[in-house]
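Q&A FORM
Asked by: J.P.
Topic: structure of S-layer protein

PROVIDED:
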Amino acid sequence: MKLRNSLHLAALFTFTVSSIAPCIPTQAQGTTFEEQEVEQTQVIAIARPFGDNKYDLLVIEQIPEKQQCWSETGTAPAIVDPLLLNFDFTGICRRATDSNGYSIRLDGQDLGLSYILRLVERNGELLLVGTPRIPNMPEIVLGRTRGVQRNFMKVVLDPGWKFSKRAFGGKQVGHFYFSGNSIEIAAASGQIPPVPPSDPVSVASFKDINDDIYKSEIEKAVALGFVAGFKEDNTFRPEIPVTREQLVSIAIDAMNTVVKIDLEATATSPSPFSDVADDRWSAKKIKWAQQNNIVAGKAAGQFQPTDPITRAELMVILRKVSEYLKMQTTQSAELVANKPPMAFSDISGHWAQNIITQMSSFCGVASPLNEQGDVFAPNEPANRNYAAAAMIRSLDCVKGNTPTTPTTPTTPITPNSP
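REPLIED BY: S.T.
REPLY: Here is the structure written out as tokens.
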């Protein structure tokens, strides 16, 4: 939206504090996500330069009593030295680099699907703005750099805005909020940011999962942020097959809820697959996954990103995801069984037989088709509902949220790669 339109719309919402207080919207009912307070001095928003005079947004959180993650010099703008670039920041710093890691929350409403955060240069400084996805809504200004240099710059939040963290079921998850309060914003600036209809993030509102056997696991996956619904019709579309590139994206975003995945570490290396161009939306994630032995290619050096992922291939990837996460959280990489393996009737002689059997004994990650009978259907496409559920089971098993049924661990195996 152009600046003049934004200013015009903002003027419509300018009142005295006493006259606007009764009109401030209350928190949306039924919202799945909560928020938790964070120490403001332990979080920073940074304008990070890249390309030809462009900047993107980086959010860093300092873990208390750990090595310093950044330092600042100056004020207009404040130049930031991201010290975490000089050491392994695992367990020291938390950071978010894209819309999966941060969003706007205004008056208790999560606006992550209604607004996208951008840095734009205006009047000699960078502004942190929420650009609306909904027609006829104005942009929201959240902060500024107070100057421009071709360097890492601190984004100073405007009065009424602060950092917080997303929570689900009382537990904090790895997602930052730029959280605003209309009364405080109005008191500081005289302008009330208009609140659009709340995003359809209350997963209970997905009209097509109420009778889905994976409903609870879909809800948990959406809450963690590694899958989402379709806002145009408020559906999840649980039975749509997942493509190979979509599964890679889901896997990395899911892993990012446990350990921080640095896609930039592999950004400069060439694409390992001839059919995945460097500017493809999934290219960075596929490249990272290949370099970290999460996925491999198909014939003739191709990845075939738009092909459906099979249920057998899903199990291989989830096995590798689980091993990676266990190693990154200082555990043994071996996947220890915690329940009896399933005796599937249709996997004998299949190339992934051992993997499927093993993953069935690892928190039931591999389970019968539609959770009924003894058919696994290894060559059938993995649908969105089962992919979300299997990923949740893998994460829970890595984190120790496992069944207590004792059984003998399966023997570690070397799988074929999808």
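FOLLOW-UP: The first strand starts at residue 34 and ends at 37.
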